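Input record, target 12 of the design panel.
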């Protein structure tokens, strides 16, 4: 016995799918499913459907009267922006999510591996919380923003990452051209330029083995010392920080201090709620931010 269905590719052409009723896998066609809702357009019990929530950018209707950018919410699957291209930050492939960044793996489908939480630390570190996270890739990193936050975060991409805060005139909306706020638009490239200049100053303060204490990070990046120290809140993070301090006292090599972070990172590879800023601060203590 056979059942039939059809899917649409991005050009709208149909591709028939046939499978045995008992089969567990599909054959043929890319994973774009067309769903039809059968029923009257309106009735006494329910109003007519005037708009739909879309999940793919090509389904969206553009607004010719404003800067072309994706409609708010396009590509989000629940609390995760699965349609976003993953960016390698702190060695993890990550996409934006609500309250943080989400680790993902790519197989036949993209799967969620666990969050790197941000929201709990953004108030202590920056004075304003970030919840609905948006990300824009630039040359060497990514610009992270949230519609209610009057600042942007720049995070370098790679196996070890650093971050820097860049203040804005007020809460900003992420568009293709840049961050739109009450004073105009700040381009993403300008955010990267300012952030990299601060991270260069941070690298100049490193001691033997490239070690950098948390106090130097808070002073150089103008972050509250209490917020920085409280961001290291897991037992694994505190153990790693203590190991780095001991390593610095005996003037160990950069390879030894980076090995401490590598061991911590393997403990952060499980699908649990890992604090993003704990991971970033520990990596910044042992790794240079500039290439």
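The sequence produced for target 12 reads:
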């Amino acid at each position: 016995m056979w059942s039939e269905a059809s899917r649409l590719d991005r050009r709208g052409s149909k591709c028939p799918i046939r499978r045995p009723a008992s089969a567990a896998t599909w054959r043929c066609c890319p994973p774009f499913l067309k769903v039809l809702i059968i029923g009257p357009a309106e009735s006494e019990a329910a109003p007519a459907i005037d708009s739909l929530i879309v999940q793919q950018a090509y389904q969206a209707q553009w607004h010719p009267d404003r800067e072309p950018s994706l409609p708010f919410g396009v590509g989000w699957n629940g609390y995760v922006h699965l349609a976003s291209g993953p960016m390698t930050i702190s060695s993890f492939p990550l996409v934006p999510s609500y309250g943080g960044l989400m680790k993902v793996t790519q197989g036949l489908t993209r799967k969620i591996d666990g969050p790197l939480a941000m929201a709990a630390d953004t108030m202590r570190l920056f004075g304003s919380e970030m919840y609905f996270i948006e990300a824009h890739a630039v040359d060497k990193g990514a610009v992270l923003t949230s519609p209610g936050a009057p600042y942007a975060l720049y995070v370098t991409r790679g196996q070890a990452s650093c971050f820097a805060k860049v203040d804005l005139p007020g809460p900003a909306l992420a568009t293709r051209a840049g961050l739109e706020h009450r004073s105009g638009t700040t381009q993403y490239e300008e955010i990267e330029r300012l952030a990299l200049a601060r991270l260069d100053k941070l690298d100049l303060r490193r001691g033997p083995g490239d070690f950098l204490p948390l106090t130097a990070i808070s002073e150089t990046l103008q972050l509250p010392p209490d917020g920085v120290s409280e961001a290291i809140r897991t037992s694994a993070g505190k153990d790693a920080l203590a190991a780095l301090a001991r390593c610095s006292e005996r003037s160990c090599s950069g390879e030894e201090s980076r090995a401490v972070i590598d061991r911590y990172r393997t403990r952060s590879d499980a699908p649990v709620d890992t604090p993003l800023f704990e991971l970033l601060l520990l990596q910044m203590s042992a790794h240079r931010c500039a290439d």
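The helical segments are 119-126, 188-203, 214-220, 225-230, 235-249, 254-267, 276-286.
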